[in-house]
Amino acid sequence: MKADKVIFSNLIYKGTGREVTGGGIAVTEDRITAVGSREEIEPFIGADTEVFSYEDKLVLPGLIDSHIHITMGAMMDDNDIDLEGTKSAEECAAIVRDYLERNPDTDLILASGWMISTWDSRELPRKEMLDAISTDIPICLSTADGWLVWVNSKALEMFGYTKESVSDEEAYFIKKDEAGELTGVLYNKGADPVYFMMMDIDPDNARRMLRNTFRRFAEFGITAVGDLSNEHVINREPAGFRLYRDLEKAGELTCRIFIYPAIDKDLTFAKAGQLKKEYSAGLVRMQGLKAYQDGVIDSYTGVLVEPYANDPNDPNNKSLNAEPIHTQEELNAKVIAANRAGYPVRIHCTGDGAVRMSLDAFEASNKANPGHGMRNCIEHIEMLHEGDYERFGQLGVIACKQPAHLLLCAEDFMIDAIGEQRWAEHQPFQSIIDAGGEVNMSTDYPIVDIDPMYNIYAALTRRIPEGEIIHNPEDAMDIWETLYGYTYSGAYVLGVEDEIGLLEAGKKADIAVLDGRIIDEPPEDLPGRKALLTIMDGKVVYQKDA
Ligand SMILES: [Zn+2]
Question: How many angstroms from the chain centroid is the CA of residue 188?
Fold first, then answer.
């Protein structure tokens, strides 16, 4: 049978192993029909076959970024105000004031990029500084990692947050001061409305932003993503899911999206079941659930085994540690019930304390649900305590890592917060592999850019782009581990390794051709490298102009 498309290259990486081979790939409709030597593939070429020849460019399965936040990224990429690199609250406020003076018709300010770890003062900002800029326009300024949002009084009003409506329990997420006043800092689920209001308020605009985002993914050769909802309640269908489906129906979706709504207090899984039914086929599918066990070390909300070395926001120095989101009992119950109901769970943990609690919960589920076969994962793992390295392999829990996050760390801040010793062991990659664990690659976009080659660069070098080693070069991964982390391993995390992630006959035709040899190039040449050709489901979704 003649193929629709044939791709030749001297460098084909199939998704596993430590080698490339020369030859070709034949594609008919949405499937790979053959992978083999040039001689084996040539007979598939007929009069109507489209032939692509790429000499020394790397061909591999379409890249899979298993952990991103699509709607948040689409919004963060779409604003004109950049707060990255600011040194203080005053500097952020001045940028916003200046923007409003130049754009007087603006009716909402949504901007991001500040990080308290790069500010001169590590005290949290307050709404009053933004109220001095405007009391009529909602102003929402997110940290680069999306965990904290600093807002003015108008925004608090728009979200319906008042001193009276926010309970003491909720004040952990919608911050109050000692006098019980809202401070204008929203944390974690308190910040949800900021990222999701746009999706609900203006779907046309949201679809436009999403189209731009998916176009960038295709330019990088990305054909599948895990969308880990950062909407913290599953009580409603996240607006993004519907918009992805709209784009799929319109034939505009250029990557597969595997969605993971968050489990909150809902242990009945009724809503999860409904979503699973609705998103069970096609390019948008629900594969499991997301949970949170802590925040981030950067804002002292990561849960540690041994307490923080300091915390300027905890003036009484009472605990010097963060509260886990769930108690051990709650987490065990949630994971056991989710796995029993057929949902793998992916748990956000930055601190080693949260990681340990999650490993314990997965261990409890393995006992309660023998042979469950769920792809349970721990996301981030910025710190890992002695004795826990081997548990990933032993328990069958996948370590979902984002190497480029290492490059976000402000070293002096981290040494102050966790001390020299723990900083030296911070961000384990290779050490988890060496202990028998599966390490997967993702970016957590928009926390860092979606650029896979920048992420691979970070994994290979543990250096900032200027060349300075951050620390612990022995924990660097090698190129084969990173390519595997972006292909077969990504499919494995998402539970779809029988469909994608490998170049072999019978698999879906998701294929990327990158602009370079990649495998033996100096790592510093990799960031910014894009695709020459991206095929998803047998269709060309991106081709670089010759
Ligand atoms: Zn995330």
Answer: 15
